[in-house]
Amino acid sequence: MDRKKWIIAAIVFQLAILAGMLIKAVLPLYTGAEITLKVLPRNPRDIFRGDYVVLNYEFSQLRLDSIPNDLDTTRTFHFGDRLYLLLQSEGNVYRPAGLYQRAGSGSKGIYMKVLVERYTRYGNLIWLS
User: Fold this and answer.
1) 3-state secondary structure 45-68
2) Cβ atoms within 10 A of the Cβ of 81, count?
3) CA distance 52 to 95
4) Does the pTM exceed 0.85?
């Protein structure tokens, strides 16, 4: 009987982990806000992978001198650094309105967590995903 309890506990534990993964994936659909972003499409062709679509967003490449930000100019940002992009509505499309190191640092609005892909101090450019 003791072995049977261990097997049942192991099955329940695995089902609980799967249920937690499902809840974590579905939760943003119920608690988040739906927004529309401008997409800059690019349809490259690769001889080995065939046709595929690469979507870039309006905020994928930002000039830091063109939008408000609180980024430390002496710091070099690396791949995977987390930043927060302030989005403001223009009609039914949201556009970048600021880039901050902490959510809520700028004015009120919707903040989206973005990751740094590349950063160039020369020209003050940052690539985000």
Assistant:
1) EECCCEECCEEEECCCEEECCCCC
2) 16
3) 26
4) no
